[in-house]
Automatic annotation (TrEMBL):
Residues 152-175 have a biased composition (Polar residues). It comes from the Bacteria. The keyword Signal applies. InterPro entries: AMIN_dom. This is AMIN domain-containing protein. The keyword Kinase does not apply. Residues 43-142 form the AMIN domain. It comes from Nostoc parmelioides FACHB-3921. Residues 1-34 form the signal peptide. Keywords: Signal. Residues 152-235 are annotated as: Disordered. Residues 192-213 have a biased composition (Low complexity). It holds the Pfam family AMIN.
Length: 235
């Protein structure tokens, strides 16, 4: 807005509304114009995959803010009162940071998003977002402190469904066997027949060669003694 046009507008405002009201309107208009002049631009950004460091360069001094979002995991940096300059809006990487995206979130906010790899997260106590130097607050450095998520380990391994054990610990009996009633039968023991080729060992008390009919021993012929008679004398 040129000075001549502004001067004419002020004179017309004084004639219509008075000097005091026109002064307030002039201050509000000047503040709006100053706010538009103080908007910064994102001139450059660069990410280093080896050190996981993000550098941001602005046209004027602004203070970025960061926060973490999960599902999917990502680290977000919002720069207030900043508009997107002529910079790259997306870069892909390999490692814990897979992608960096830059966009104009609103008319006054520029957003930078670091998409993390699955199984990664951010240690909130170690994230650093600081100006490169105190004398130059237009250049900021983000160190995200990315760590791996610990997986839960199970103490047992589940076997696949419908899989029978290779070495069963039991034997399943057929279901067609009749139930056992009454006393339990003793097991039947079969004795093999005698082999006729193996002769019966001979006894040393008998001299008979026929082992099937052993001889009957002969007793001495003692006399019969009537009751009350003296016993005979033997020599």
């Amino acid at each position: 807005m040129s000075k001549a046009i502004m001067s004419n507008n002020i004179q017309g405002c004084k004639q219509l509304f008075g000097a005091s009201l026109c002064t307030a309107i002039t201050l509000v208009t000047s503040s709006s114009i100053a706010a538009q002049v103080q908007m910064a631009k994102l001139n450059n950004w660069r990410f280093y995959p080896d050190t996981k460091k993000l550098e941001i360069t602005l046209s004027s001094s602004k203070t970025p803010q960061y926060f973490y979002l999960n599902e999917p995991p990502r680290l977000v940096v919002d720069i207030p009162d900043t508009q997107l300059g002529k910079v790259s809006t997306q870069q892909n990487y390999t490692g814990s940071v897979q992608r960096v995206r830059v966009s104009q979130l609103s008319a006054n906010v520029t957003r930078i998003v670091l998409d993390l790899a699955p199984g990664s997260t951010v240690d909130a106590n170690k994230v650093q977002l600081q100006p490169a130097t105190r004398q130059n607050p237009t250049r900021w450095v983000l160190r995200p402190a990315i760590v791996k998520v610990a997986k839960q380990s199970s103490n047992f391994q589940q076997s696949p469904k419908n899989q029978q054990p290779t070495t069963p610990s039991y034997v399943q009996l057929p279901s067609t066997l009749p139930p056992i009633t009454g006393l339990q039968q003793q097991p039947f023991v079969s004795v093999p027949p005698l082999n006729s080729n193996n002769p019966t060992p001979k006894s040393s008390n008998f001299n008979n060669t026929n082992s099937s009919n052993p001889p009957v021993p002969t007793l001495p012929n003692y006399p019969v003694i009537e009751f009350g008679q003296p016993l005979p004398k033997f020599r």
